[in-house]
Amino acid sequence: xxxxxxxxxxxxxxxxxxxxxxxxxxxxxxxxxxxxxxxxxxxxxxxxxxxxxxxxxxxxxxxxxxxxxxxxxxxxxxxxxxxxxxxxxxxxxxxxxxxxxxxxxxxxxxxxxxxxxxxxxxxxxxxxxxxxxxxxxxxxxxxxxxxxxxxxxxxxxxxxxxxxxxxxxxxxxxxxxxxxxxxxxxxxxxxxxxxxxxxxxxxxxxxxxxxxxxxxxxxxxxxxxxxxxxxxxxxxxxxxxxxxxxxxxxxxxxxxxxxxxxxxxxxxxxxxxxxxxxxxxxxxxxxxxxxxxxxxxxxxxxxxxxxxxxxxxxxxxxxxxxxxxxxxxxxxxxxxxxxxxxxxxxxxxxxxxxxxxxxxxxxxxxx
Length: 367
What we know:
- The protein is an alpha+beta fold.
- It has three domains: 3-158, no CATH class; 176-242; 246-366, Heat Shock Protein 90.
- Helix content is 66%, strand content 10%.
- The protein is built from eleven helices and five strands.
- It has helices spanning 3-8, 11-26, 35-51, 61-79, 88-100, 103-123, 129-210, 218-242, 249-257, 278-299, 333-344; strands at 264-269, 303-311, 314-321, 348-353, 359-366.
- The radius of gyration is 34 Å and the shape is rod-shaped.
- The mean pLDDT is 78.
C-alpha cells in the first residue's frame, strides 16, 4: 500500500472521519435552507483534515489548515446551534492541532477558540454557555493529550529506529575492520613462518642438487621445482591478502538507512573509492545520517541520493534529496555539527541549492 494511503488510514484519521459522518447525520434536524451551507462547510472541513496527507511538501498548508478548521466549526455553531453537534468539530481540530504543534501553542489556540465559542452561544441566547464550553473543553483536553502522547510515542519509535540503525552501521564497520585485521595477521603468519621454511627448504634442495651423488636423481629436480612454485604461490597469496580493499561503506550506509521508512537511500559508490581510515568512514557515516534526518524532518523528501567518488587523494561526497528547501539555508545544530565533524576528520563541507530547489551537500575528506 502507498505510504500516503497508509497515513490517510491511520487510526486518528479514521476516528475523525467517523465523527464527521456522525455530525453530518445530525444535520437532518437543521432547517432546509441552511442544510446546503452546512454540508459544504463540513465537506471543506473534511478536506482540510485529510489533505495534509496528500500535500506533505506544501509548507503553507498546515497554518491554513489549523486556522480554517476552528473557523468552520464555529461558523456551523453560529449557523444553527440547536443540534449541538458542531462543537464536536472543535474536539477533532484540537487533536489535529496537538499532533502538529507544541502543547503551549495548542493550549493558547484552544482557549481562543473556546472564548469565541462562548460568545457565539451567548449571542444566541443559550441559557448556560459557560457550562457547555467547559464540557467541550474537557473533551478537547482529552483529545489533545491522546494526540500528543500518540505523536510522542511515534517520535520515540523513530528515535529508537535511528539509534538501532546507527548501531547496525557501526557494527558493520567494526566487523569489516576486524576482518581486515585478521586477514593482515594471517598474511604475516604465512610470510614469516611458511615463507621462511619454504625458503630454507629451497636452499637445501639447491645444495643437494649441487652434490654429484644426487644431481642425477629426477626427484631432486621435481622437489626443487615444486618448492620454488609453492614459495611463489605463497608470496602471491600474502600480497593479495595485504592488498587492503578498504572498509565496506556501502553495507554500513545501507544498514544506516534501512530502518527509516522515509526517505529511501539511493547510493552510488565509484569503484575507485577505498576508505581505510575508520575515522574517515565514521565521518561519512555521520554525514549521511544527519542528511537523512534533515531530509525527512525539514524537506519532507522521499529519496536521498548519495554519491561517493575519489579525486586524487580526496574522497568526494555529494548528498541531494527530492524535497524542497524552504527559504535561505540556515545552519542549525544538525548542519553545524555535520560541518564540525567533517572538519575534525580533515575535510571541508559546502551547502548549496540544487536545480530542483532542494538542499545539496558537498563534502571532501582524506581518502
